[in-house]
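This is your field. Pick holes in the following sequence-structure pair:
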Amino acid sequence: MASKSLQDLKQQVQGAAQEAVTAAGSSAQQVVDQATEAGQKAMDQVAKATQETIDKTANQASETFSGFGKKLGLIR
């Protein structure tokens, strides 16, 4: 009878340990997912800022060359 109780206790402890491992794994995955999402958002912001800078530079260059063309009489 005591052996049956010990066996039941052992199974309960193993079950609880397995649940703890599963919960820890799930929590770790959530942390990884959140870090990945944050990294992606940061990369999106860098890409957007870079594109905006490229667009502004291209516009400024176009305006500058247009101004030169007007001064040289090539553009009216």
In short: The mean pLDDT is 88. DSSP finds one helix and no strands in the chain.
